[in-house]
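Lecture notes, continued. The same structure-token format from the folding unit now serves as the input rather than the output. Read the line below as a description of shape only.
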């Protein structure tokens, strides 16, 4: 790998931007493609597939032969609410390769005893995001049922373009939530990005099953997301 390519990859990694090292075997050249760069031609579809799947691959196209080496930021889940569902979700997320953190200003819930080994913040979400912002490779899962805690993270996730945004609550609760967020200027199309009721429809009936349904929907969204 050339020094210039390594420097660009390191810069993208620090900013949590997905990148691909495109190596051409015929011309013996390489370049870095960042997620969101405009590309044309047959190789563009391969690059888009690689960004979406996260899998490196060889290619043999009219534009040449080579390799696509994919470097994706580690996907994360920001869980708002140190509730029972969150306890199961942090465990499952780790098994599936996600970095999970829990944010809840209610110190009676957000304890290391209830979430051993899990990064916890008892700050209000606005303050927690100043230290560790959301990004396009973060899923936002709001579980508190409390608008004072959930609404701001949901709004921030919409502005950031988190690959998954989900919120716990009944359809009535979500309708009220949508009304509040609409007053902040979000369009119906933007608000449709919020998954509610949260999780895949698998008939989940207890916290562990709901956590499975949420993680399934998070994975589905990560692998089918729209690229910028």
């Amino acid at each position: 790998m050339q020094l210039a390519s390594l420097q660009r990859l390191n810069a993208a990694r620090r900013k949590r931007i997905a990148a691909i090292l495109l190596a051409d075997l015929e011309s013996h050249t390489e370049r870095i493609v960042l997620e969101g760069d405009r590309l044309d031609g047959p190789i563009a579809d391969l690059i888009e597939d690689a960004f979406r799947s996260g899998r490196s691959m060889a290619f043999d196209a009219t534009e040449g032969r080579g390799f696509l080496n994919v470097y994706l930021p580690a996907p994360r889940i920001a869980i708002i609410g140190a509730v029972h569902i969150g306890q199961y979700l942090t465990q499952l997320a780790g098994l599936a390769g996600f970095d999970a953190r829990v944010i809840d200003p209610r110190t009676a819930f957000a304890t290391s005893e209830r979430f051993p080994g899990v990064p916890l913040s008892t700050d209000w979400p606005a303050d927690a995001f100043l230290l560790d912002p959301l990004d396009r490779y973060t899923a936002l899962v709001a579980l508190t049922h409390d608008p004072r805690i959930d609404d701001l993270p949901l709004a921030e996730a919409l502005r950031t373009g988190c690959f998954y945004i989900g919120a716990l609550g009944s359809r009535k609760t979500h309708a009220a939530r949508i009304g509040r967020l609409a007053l902040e200027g979000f369009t119906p199309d933007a608000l449709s990005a919020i998954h509610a009721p949260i999780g895949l429809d698998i008939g989940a009936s207890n916290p562990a099953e709901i956590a499975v349904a949420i993680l399934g929907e998070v994975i589905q969204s990560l692998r089918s997301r729209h690229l910028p």
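Point for the exam: Residues 14 and 57 are 24 Å apart (CA to CA).
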